[in-house]
């Protein structure tokens, strides 16, 4: 399985956490005045949902999820020291290990998720990100699309109210990769990045300036915009320095490890397979019905959304076909009108042709609404739910890790008991030391498990709220597009009717 | 008129447009009290359709004033072919034969549905079954309409209505025992058509002295081709429309399932939207059906009639060629002073035939134009009115639903 023992050692030296050194605003809901959390950002077990996180230097990054503070990847990216991940408050029964951490601005003095949420009330979410102006940079196979990312905000988190940067697709993937490696395994639902498309991108690179490559770029631009908005709407992710750097900094080091065909990419795929097998073998004693219920709920939702998505994709396709066929009919009707030798009928047929031509444009527009509003919403949520299922899996793995430590402790205790009867004082001492270490580990395991469970509860609640809001907003917009189409149709046919009646 | 077809249920919607008077949707015919023909009933069996042809007449030719017989498609074809083969009718546009009833596709779909019953939910199955049955019914009604139009056209024609075969067709209450053409006859027909089109090219090349016919020739050749193209394109457009309506149906079902499963606020939302899409897709399906009836069928009919008109012109051209040949033969005979009388008689016959055809053809073509313009006007107006009605219906549903959804959020 996975080299768990290695991480046990590592855990002690590479934990960091957040502490509030300044006075907290009186919004803390916990009795403890110095809430802090001991968090190890390493979890063992294979990768989470994210496809893109790895460290090119360390081949086993995937296997161990070690995000070492000393790793070159981090050094390059961060300006001041280690950046803390915001973590929720621990349940009162756990051991608190205070340590020092740095902060970006003074927002990181809050360690409680609750406090952050309430902070939102003060500096309410007011941010709009747009991705625009796709521009081809370079030539041939090394070419890429650069997008302008503009942020407009009044939040105090940012230095300015409006600013923009140039980013390319791999930058987005790199951002997701970092966020996933930091947050997924502790239970945060990190929005997945838009999917790669080797075919689509190649067409663009090769320079085919045609309808389909334009559509591809627009699809991607829209997807990137939605991705960023979802990411910043997450109160914890918004404050992550990688996110802030992505939005604000004019220079961003290239994320090389996101290439699909790199050795890291291949290793990813191998581990994904191993992951799937592993998942099947974890049999967890679910003591909390809430989790079981929620997992089932997301399972069902997944199935239904995929089905709905497929139907909507089919609608988009048929609507586009309808548009094309209507245009062809319009041309044909015009020809018929030309050859008709009765003057009034000839004119009416030409008018019919004009109406149908306008209607074909209407169908084209409606197909776009079908796609960009409805279909993409469903596609995004299908991917999001995969991320949600991923955090549930991480909880299982966390539980497993805890159980494994417990079993190991048990074994060591039994071994120690046996050693009592032998005359090997050194070995006995070693055993006692190991047991002490393991006890700590078991406690940590339990804390981690409780922590991730708590985080997931909060995350799921937030996710469901967002989901309700998203679906309602977008579906209403979609229905409004349908209203517009019908209104236009009425206009066109009302104009045509007197023409038809005028035939004599 | 009741349509009974093996127990399939008739929705009220479908009958409203069609069941007023003769179902002559594509042709605007004067109904004449002396001879009224319609199809009052139809029965769809395994692989054939039985039409009940109902006649009301004050003409002395018939034994009774009102009577009915049962006829099948082959008997209509026999009647049509008998007109075509009758030399006396060479100068008329022979009303085009109705197309063969084709339920194969629909039947196949129903069968596939039956086979796949296990793989879908009860609601889905019932829904799909209803749709396929509605489709079957629509095809059925269309075929009835097309057979009826043929008979009405014959009954309205001043000369054809007196045809003896027509009367036998209407009155003889036994089976006419016409068999469909066998392979040999079909082959003969095929070659006849080949010869005709080769001739057609020959004959079309001869410039007509008569301006009217010259114009008609040019007009009909081009018109026929363009109607053919428009008919094909309208069919494709309507099929896409139907496909889109089917998708909306599936979307409505999925939304319904989501609505019943969801534990959040969204459940009511999804159910409402599902209900909306159920209704709008019925309207979309209706739009496609109406476009089919008012546009596609219209074009198909005039495709067939313009072909019949072309056939008339062809026959006239053939008569002209025969006449010219007879003239040449007469000159030759006079020059050789042999068989002059024979040649003279032949020439006179040809001349007479040609003039007779020309005279009636002119009137037929003028009538054709009148009918065509009237039919297009009627159908285009009705098409526009229906499109408007459906769009307004859709709009009302959408706006009312939006009002509710926005009010609740």
UniProtKB/TrEMBL annotation, chain A:
User: What is the membrane topology noted in the UniProt record heading this document?
Assistant: Peripheral membrane protein
PANTHER family reported in the protein's UniProt record: SORTING NEXIN, SORTING NEXIN-2
- Return one GO MF term: phosphatidylinositol binding
Q: Which gene does this sequence derive from?
A: SNX2
Where is the region Disordered?
23-59
Q: Which Pfam families match?
A: PX (PF00787), Vps5 (PF09325)
Protein name, UniProt field:
Sorting nexin-2
What Gene3D superfamilies does the record point to? Arfaptin homology (AH) domain/BAR domain (1.20.1270.60), Phox-like domain (3.30.1520.10)
Recorded source organism is: Lates calcarifer (Barramundi)
TrEMBL record, chain B:
Against Gene3D superfamilies, the record matches this protein to:
Arfaptin homology (AH) domain/BAR domain, Phox-like domain
Per UniProt, what is one GO molecular function of this protein?
phosphatidylinositol binding
What is known about what this protein does?
A: Involved in several stages of intracellular trafficking.
Q: What is the lineage of its organism?
A: Eukaryota, Metazoa, Chordata, Craniata, Vertebrata
Q: Which GO terms describe its biological process?
A: protein transport; retrograde transport, endosome to Golgi
* Protein name listed in UniProt: Sorting nexin
GO CC annotation: cytosol; endosome
Instruction: Alphabetically list the UniProt keywords.
Output: Coiled coil, Protein transport, Transport
Ranges for domain PX: 29-176
